[in-house]
Amino acid sequence: MIEEAVRILRQTSSLLVITGAGVSQESGIPTFRGKNGLWQNYRAEDLATPWAFERDPETVWRWYDWRRGIIKNAQPNRGHLAIKELEELYENFYLITQNVDGLHGRTGVKNMIEIHGNLWRVRCTRENITFMLLDVPLKEIPPRCKCGALLRPDVVWFGESIPNELMEKAFSLLETYETLIVAGTSGVVYPVASFPTIMKSRGASVIEINVERTPISDVATVSIMGKTGDVLPEIVERLKKMV
Ligand code: OAD
């Protein structure tokens, strides 16, 4: 299976990579679904919706604080680093991540869309302006903007739309790129869950990497079962050998 993926990648001039929480699992960051997934112990509707924040902003803020605490001590793993290497190998490369942990950014990857936002960034609920969290003195939880309104994590919650400019950029990639690697996502959260099908129906190749089968496996040209921290570095190594 890796051989087939490498064969496709060797003939590719534009590569899109889509990642989900599985890519950060080997950095010690819990995924949402599957074994020990966050949604087994927490209810998404109580923590990751605009209504939850309206009802109980402190609980939502503290949950994000808890996740930031885990992420702060985590490092990008071999999967994240391999994706950065892929960026070096392809002239036309883009990464769309659903992860809000910022670990891809810490590898120095340049062409990236954080399509669900970033939990180190916060946004004024009145003015919609954003700040990096470190710039905001935390006198209370949740903190407030200078204008007096509450600050919220700058992430996309269930029931919210992805910002237009990000969707437009994503669609321009889906419509033009030759090959997609989709790694460590359960493929159930829309709109990203539809991206592999959109690319495949245009004739693009879709390579899936996951520890288990997902709805994307039915669409994928090649489905590789394995950890992204093992599979991605192996792919990169083989691609480099062939240059
Ligand atoms: P999920 O938690 O739904 O899925 C993680 C996927 O990664 C699962 O299919 C696992 O089998 C797989 N996986 C786990 N460890 C892996 C490893 N080491 N290597 C490869 N695969 C592995 O995460 P997402 O698909 O990212 O949104 O979830 C999508 C969105 O739903 C998230 O952005 C988040 C969530 O609720 C919001 O909070 C709005």
Explain what the structure shows:
The protein has 243 residues and is of the alpha/beta class. The protein has two domains: 2-29 and 76-116 and 162-240, Rossmann fold (3-Layer(aba) Sandwich), CATH 3.40.50; 44-73 and 124-155, SIR2/SIRT2 'Small Domain', CATH 3.30.1600.10. It has eleven helices and nine strands. The strands form two sheets. It has a six-stranded parallel β-sheet with strand order 3-2-1-7-8-9, with helices on both faces. It has a three-stranded antiparallel β-sheet with strand order 5-4-6, with helices on one face. The mean pLDDT is 95. The chain binds 2'-O-acetyl adenosine-5-diphosphoribose.
Short description:
This protein has 2 domains: 2-29 and 76-116 and 162-240, TPP-binding domain (Rossmann fold, 3-Layer(aba) Sandwich); 44-73 and 124-155, 2-Layer Sandwich (SIR2/SIRT2 'Small Domain'). It is 39% helix and 19% strand.
Instruction: Give unreliable regions as ranges.
Output: none
The description of the largest β-sheet is: 6 strands, parallel
Give the terminus-to-terminus CA distance: 20 Å
**Count the helices. How many?**
11
Determine and state the CATH class of the largest domain: Alpha Beta
